[in-house]
# Entry
Amino acid sequence: MDGRINSTRPEVCSEIAIVDWRTIYDKICIVHGIKVILDFNLAEICGYSAKALSVRTIKVHR
# Structure
C-alpha cells in the first residue's frame, strides 16, 4: 500500500435511523405468496434513491 485513499470505496455511514414498524409493514407486498419489499420501497426506507441502492448492491456482491 502506498497510503493513498481508495476513492472508489463508498463511505460508510455511522448514523442509525429509527424507522417505525408500521412504515416497514406498509411497504410489504405479496408476490406469488411471498412477502417482499420492492427495491424502491427499501431505498426509501434506507434513505437512498432506487438507482443508488442498486449500484451499492451490485458493488457489494461483486
Notes: The helical segments are 21-27, 39-46, 50-60.
